[in-house]
Amino acid sequence: MPALRLFVAVEPPPAVRRRLAALQAEVRRAAGRAADDVRWVAPEQIHLTLAFLGNAPEERIDAVRGAVADAAAACAPLHLEVRGAGGFPSARRPRVVWAGLAGDLEPLGALAADLRRRLAPLGFPLEERDFRAHLTLGRSRDRGGARGMAGALAAANEADPCAWRADEVVLFRSHLGPGGARHEALQRAEMGAGAR
For residue 92, how many C-alpha atoms fall within 13 Å in the half-sphere facing its CB? Predict the structure, then answer.
């Protein structure tokens, strides 16, 4: 049976995606030629990853769906806010350019941890690194990181925040292709359904 490339995420709503597109444009404009060293994520593909499963055998999909639904049901909806921008491992030479998040970050981290605990017995090992809530805006074309982005990212921290209510967790399949990844939602699990 073919393997499916899977991840679990929270999707920003259209208004937040528009704000993220504007934030990308601001960073790109401020970075000038340095912005060409970054592969920018299409705004419709931006998401908040909770767990990356990688290639999963198709026969595990039902169990994965159950784990996602149970984790979502156990977590109340979250109030999140796009706030600022930065880079991993640093803004000076980022390999990943991101938009920051504020709001219910502690319950968001607990949701990610609960989800990962539920997926571990299904053969998806727990990630060793800590969960860091962010929305990826772009990735450096150079393994050493993109130079000349620090000023643009610092300027983006002055942008107005944009809030939203996250009320579902999504299981995505990622289709890789020459034009980049395309994400297909396989399941949408309502948050807080178990609290009723």
Answer: 0
